[in-house]
Design brief:
mainly alpha; 8 helices; 182 residues; elongated
Length: 182
């Protein structure tokens, strides 16, 4: 863990924006982990109610589904910060440092564009559910704006992390794709 935190610190330098985004991404990672822990605890409680007490459950399955989806979306910026997403280094390794730099700028710019579109439509969908006070068609009848809030929050923080990654490469605080020049 110490190696990861020092590697992340070296990618932010003394830039306050990069440090702030890194802190937000870390907070999102902790929230994502808390959602997974809550989902596991609710699943255990549901199993106990159903099989030990022979009772019925009304809200547990829906809550676990929303928590699992929410943890995935809210965890996006933390995984990006740690460079944990699936990537293939074959092409960047084969390129010259200059070509690698421009390829990194291109891929980050395209990623920012795609995630910005997802953020926009996610926010629009969340706002619609909030404005119309939509509820799930279950016994629990949860207000859907609550679980759907994970869409704009997750994609918004992911967008910030991608922008921070792009700024770090442009300012030469970080190497393109995290690869050293050979």
């Amino acid at each position: 863990m110490a190696g990861q935190s020092s590697a992340v610190a070296s990618r932010t330098g003394n830039n306050p924006f990069l440090r702030g985004v890194s802190a937000l991404s870390t907070l999102a990672g902790w929230c994502s982990a808390a959602m997974i822990v809550a989902a596991v605890a609710i699943t255990c409680q549901m199993i106990f109610i159903r099989f030990a007490l022979n009772g019925s459950t009304t809200w547990q399955t829906e809550a676990v589904i929303y928590l699992a989806i929410g943890s995935t979306l809210v965890g996006l910026p933390y995984v990006q910060k740690l460079r944990g997403h699936v990537n293939v280094d074959l092409i960047p390794l084969a390129l010259s440092p200059r070509a690698r730099y421009f390829m990194c700028l291109l891929t980050l710019s395209l990623s920012i564009t795609m995630v910005a579109i997802l953020f926009w439509y996610g926010f629009e969908h969340w706002h619609l559910t909030y404005e119309r006070n939509w509820k799930s068609d279950t016994v629990w009848a949860v207000r859907l704006w609550i679980p759907y809030l994970a869409l704009p929050v997750g994609f918004g923080l992911f967008l910030l992390q991608l922008i921070a990654d792009l700024i770090a490469v442009v300012l030469k605080i970080d190497k393109p794709f995290g690869l050293e020049d050979v």
